[in-house]
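JOB MANIFEST
job_type = single_chain_structure
chain_count = 1
residues = 155
[input]
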Amino acid sequence: MVCLGNICRSPTAEAVLRTKLAKAGLERHVEVGSAGTHGERGGAPDARAVAAAARRGYDLSRIRSRRLVVKDFERFDLLLAMDLDNLEHLSNQCPPGEHHRLGLLLEMGAPSLGLREVPDPYYGAPAGFERVLDLIEPACEGLVVSLQRRLLGTS
């Protein structure tokens, strides 16, 4: 999961996906991480993201921000951006022949929402963090279904 600073959207997506994978019994089959295309390293997620996620039962307390590195393109089968700007950054850094690993979270997991991007809530009101969860939750549910099919051959 990739966003700008790895303090709002991508750590939220990481925690939501981890939780949904655990409920589906897939936590040992899928490695989940998050990173930012820019920003600081080692900081905790934004307190507003932490609070919004906690209200819905997601724990962001162990996640620390980090910057995307070239090895992420080898380590992860999918690198899912929260918006088009971050997808472009991923595409620019991506090694040749590996662009098939890139995508937008909402297009991969929740195309029925009719949206492509998870908006950045950082400079907005607290309701923006709830909106992020409203988009990320169904996207991660769809992604888990896709991963189940891929990993376990289920429908």
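[summary]
The radius of gyration is 14 Å.
The beta strands are 2-3, 35-36, 79-81, 102-104.
exit_status = 0
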